[in-house]
Design brief:
The complex is a heterodimer of chains A (389) and B (183). Chain A is α/β, with parallel strands linked by helices. Chain A is 41% helix and 18% strand. Chain A has 2 domains: 241 residues, Rossmann fold, CATH 3.40.50; 134 residues, 3-Layer(aba) Sandwich (Rossmann fold), CATH 3.40.50. In chain B, strands 2-3-1-4-5-6-7 form a 7-stranded mixed sheet, with helices on one face. The chains are: A alpha/beta (389), B alpha/beta (183).
Chain lengths: 389, 183
Amino acid sequence: MGKRVAKEVSIAVADAVAQCRVDVISAYPITPMTHIVEHLAELVNNGELDAEYIAVESEHAAMSACIGAAAAGARTFTSTAAQGLMFMYELLFIASGFRLPIVMVVVNRALSAPISIWNDHGDVMTMRDAGWIQTFAENGQEAVDLLYHAYRVAEKTMIPVAVNLDGFIVSHVVEPVELLDQEQVDKYLPPLKMKYKLDPKKPITMGAIGVPEIYTEVKKAQDEALKASYRVILQAWKDFEKITGKRYQPIETYWMEDAEVALVLMGSLSETAMNAVDKLRDQGKKVGLIRIRLWRPFPLQEFIKAIGKVKALCVFDRAMSYGSTGGPVGIEVRSALYQSNKRPKVLNLIGALGGRDVTVEDFEEIFDRTYSFIKAKPRFTYEIYGAKE
Amino acid sequence: MIEIRLHGRGGQGGVTSAELIAIAAITQGKYAQAFPSFGPERRGAPVQAFARISDTRIRTREKIYHPDVILVLDASLPKIVRVTAGLKENGIAILNSSHSEQEVREMLGGYKGKLALVDATKIALEVLGVPITNTTMLGAFIKATGLVDPKYMEEALKERFGRLADKNIKALYRAIEETKIYE
């Protein structure tokens, strides 16, 4: 294993990208940009990374450049956040439709208006249905480990992967991180070999028209490929475990064995929430935590298994789905439970929006509310948590 | 776990100080975290930065509301910002000041807790030639708390400042010598 170092998470992620020996990086520095692409530009400029850095005029062009490069067989990387992801939107579906193994780090931030630069999951939830594999990191170490994993998975499945990490509260934090040794990375990520790529010696067409006679079949094939990627994702984590001894799974559980109520989260707030679980467990309360690491493809069976015997779940969403029946994760969870014979009550809160802090105390209160929700009438609704009246 | 809040003005290197504290602590084998206050910050405006140091893994992403230590880089700040807000009863306030203990306590609104003072602006001007006190105040932090071994801070400064490190290390050690602690 590599050395344990103190690094700003963004810098550590950029170093890991460089270790993956990317051929092409294309990005646009949305304000405030993280140091991820800035540091990569530096590495390329200093001759420390042998890659093409394509400076573009927008995120739309950044993803276009990645698509072109990946179609020609290059290992590509980009990173963006918030409005930048919105500007890239059209191309996200083309990347997945072309079946290109692009890896992108999305530093999760709120969407305007009103203008916000702070953390929530509003940006990435808009690409929920874009056909990308999507993972969520809890901390800097996991962001780095998921990055290595992303290339392994993308190149074995030919599906683009988005690694999500929370803006500021992860991206801008200096904390201890262990990078792999270069030899370990090289072993984990052999050079990219694409069966179909743009090659003047062997011409093919990418992006042809899909007439009504074939469009449905192509979409079905794409969906089946995304579902089938699940097995590859698990295998890639197993292979990662062989190298590092670290075990990653689609769903992470904390104190769930005998839990009566549980909190469901994605991203780094689970670290804060674990402190609340510890405190309440000390008081004898049977609370637990479920963290969804793999969001797409959604790990349905693992999720159902993870909820054990809970009587009530609180799904804590970090994005709006205006006028719907819940937050994006809440809707997913309720839908998953509908066909299951396990049917705990589901309290769906939407909070920590646009950088609003959620403390250990807040999570203690949320657990209390979830307890009282056990006896509540089932309500198919959601609530914005922490809004001032 | 020890929680530290740094007060400075935009451009004075408060975020760098917080990072250096975390880097030194991590290199020393401890667990640590450092983060800025995530606002749209402007040069000269009052800003904050944060750090946590612990012997066990730090598992929290919440802001720091009740620090154990406050470190004030800019001597004029206590007049406009209540720097001791939320400071724990047994916590310590470490300030850059040329004033006497009594004067500072008054400036802090009758503060009765543990206090550490150093004239960091004077040291910075003499050693670095500029009134940038962030590395000098790291010396005061080390003297007042003993949370970081100076030799790891030296390493962190070398890594961060390259050829400018020597002067900053000198300022660091002068502050370690000159910081006075009042119970």
